[in-house]
Amino acid sequence: RKEVEQDPGPFNVPEGATVAFNCTYSNSASQSFFWYRQDCRKEPKLLMSVYSSGNEDGRFTAQLNRASQYISLLIRDSKLSDSATYLCVVNFNTNAGKSTFGDGTTLTVKP
Amino acid sequence: NAGVTQTPKFRVLKTGQSMTLLCAQDMNHEYMYWYRQDPGMGLRLIHYSVGEGTTAKGEVPDGYNVSRLKKQNFLLGLESAAPSQTSVYFCASLAGGSREQYFGPGTRLTVT
């Protein structure tokens, strides 16, 4: 079993749709959690950190459930520019900042 | 600030050749990382460094060596390239106590 698993996707949605991505992690000692965005043939960039209390940044909402070892990302009112691959990232050792990446979920938003 | 830069951007090697990938960051970050990304997959950690003069193995270190002689530079070496090392290589850096890794633009390596 992979340490970080994501919905296989791809997700193809119309503009304005709401879409949710899920991610599970296997190490209960995991300490910090993130969603990164990666555009085609580009480097990953931090989209948002994920906190236990849940957090929101505009149209994006991230949730963490430590008991179920589950992370989610909700995108409301999808835009064409949201088309990208979304990577779930988990850190098990914040002292070294080492991260484990999920394989990513690809989102295509269509007009 | 240039952020994180990688050299070269593209390279084609023949099996058995060697090469060094250079990563440089101008943000005075303590931690630096080398990842590889294969098609349809997430990033896998090759080696990392928590400070100048220190390196450690990541998830997939075999066939690679690294050095961090200066804080701003992290070099990834392939001593004898194999087709299985065809991949996109990303370097990243992180400030101590921070949460966000900053990535370079990647090096696309093909080994024939």
Topology:
The complex is a heterodimer of chains A (111) and B (112).
Chain A: E1 4-6, E2 11-14, E3 19-25, E4 32-38, E5 44-50, E6 55-57, E7 60-65, E8 70-75, E9 84-93, E10 98-101, E11 105-110
Parallel strand pairs in A: 2-11
Antiparallel strand pairs in A: 1-3, 3-8, 4-5, 4-9, 6-7, 7-8, 9-10, 9-11
Chain B: E1 4-7, E2 10-13, E3 19-25, E4 31-37, E5 43-51, E6 54-57, E7 64-67, E8 73-78, E9 87-94, E10 102-103, E11 107-111
Parallel strand pairs in B: 2-11
Antiparallel strand pairs in B: 1-3, 3-8, 4-5, 4-9, 5-6, 7-8, 9-10, 9-11
Distance between the termini of chain A: 37 Å
**Beta-sheet strand percentage of chain A?**
over 45%
| pLDDT < 50 stretches of chain B | none
Strand content of chain B: over 45%
Helix/strand order of chain A: EEEEEEEEEEE
Task: Provide structural commentary.
- The complex is a heterodimer of chains A (111) and B (112).
- Chain A is built from no helices and eleven strands.
- Chain A is mainly β.
- The model of chain A has no long low-confidence stretch (mean pLDDT 91).
- The N and C termini of chain A lie far apart (37 Å).
- Chain B is mostly beta strands and 112 residues long.
- Chain B has strands at 4-7, 10-13, 19-25, 31-37, 43-51, 54-57, 64-67, 73-78, 87-94, 102-103, 107-111.
- In chain B, the strands form two sheets. In chain B, strands 2, 4, 5, 6, 9, 10 and 11 form a seven-stranded mixed β-sheet that branches.
- The model of chain B has no long low-confidence stretch (mean pLDDT 94).
- The A-B interface holds A 4, 32, 34, 41-46, 49, 87, 95-104 and B 31, 33, 35, 40-45, 48, 50, 56, 58-59, 90, 94, 98-101, 103-106.
